[in-house]
Amino acid sequence: MIDLDFKKCNGLIPTIVQDVHDGTVLMLAYMNEEALQKTLETGKATFWSRSRNELWTKGETSGNFQLVKKIYKDCDEDTLLLQVESVGPACHTGNRSCFYRLLEKQPNS
């Protein structure tokens, strides 16, 4: 298929999802080979749910699809970066990004 190291993390690859237009990091999810194949076939971001042990396409229930424009792999071939056009918010809380809460303790504070 594609030269990626799915073995390193027990069949899963961490996948960072980023807005293709402004670079905002929207979320982090995991893909297995089947999720990646479905993403490539449909153009919609599809992931592996570790809690439900099943594939899920972002937006299937909410309508907040992520239309994949580019896929990058990192230098170790064990992490992906999806650049997407988001239809609606990425976070299940309704926030645009899952990274909206600042950690209270910051470096040198």
Short description:
The chain has one helix and six strands, in the order ββαββββ. With 109 residues, it is mostly beta strands.
How would you sum up this structure, described in words?
This protein is mostly beta strands and 109 residues long. The chain is 9% helix and 34% strand. It has one helix and six strands; from the N terminus they run E-E-H-E-E-E-E. The termini are far apart. 21% of the residues are buried.
Rounded to the nearest angstrom, the radius of gyration is 14 Å
Distance between the termini: 47 Å
Largest sheet: 4 strands, mixed
Low-confidence sequence ranges:
none
Cα shape: globular
Report the β-strand fraction as a percent range. 25-35%
Oligomer state equals: single chain
Q: What count of helical segments does DSSP give?
A: 1
With strands numbered from the N-terminus, the spatial order across the biggest sheet is 2-1-6-5
Strand segment tally:
6
- Overall SS class: mainly beta
How confident overall, as mean pLDDT? Answer: 94
Element-by-element helix/strand order: EEHEEEE
Question: Secondary-structure map with pairings?
Answer:
Layout: E1 13-19, E2 25-31, H1 33-42, E3 46-49, E4 54-57, E5 66-73, E6 80-86
Which features characterize this protein?
two-stranded antiparallel sheet; single chain; 1 helix
